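FW: tagging you since you asked about this chain on Friday. Here's the raw sequence from the shared folder, copied in full. Didn't touch anything.
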Amino acid sequence: MQSKPMSRTDSTSRADVERVRDRDLSAWLTTSTLAVLGCGAEWHGPSRMMMAAIAPLSERYPGRVQVAHLDTDVSPDATRRYDLRSIPTVLLFDRGRAVGRVVGLTSLADVCSAIERQLAAIAN
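HL: got it, structure written out here
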């Protein structure tokens, strides 16, 4: 069964998500076992929808997942470093190392599947 794309009603406001920039990204990445970084632009509708959808993930995985938003327009270094060619993109990090990505506006189930795979890999 294929998942439907996320809609505006799938989650809370993106204001609930911590915002990081180039200057504080490295420090943010070292504060959690699994970090979920939503990358997009404020002006981009699909990016805003994805950020709203991933906002509650830290509550869904308490103590195991940390979530933040990176605005690609104001973070050119991270945009280049992680080869962000399409937005929205959700990057997954394990102890500061990029270990996965979900590109484009997709379902929350797809993002959760990627998180579950990484959490299982960390546990093993």
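FW: Confidence is low (pLDDT under 50) at residues 1-15.
HL: agreed, and Residues 108-123 form the longest helix (16 residues).
FW: great, closing this out.
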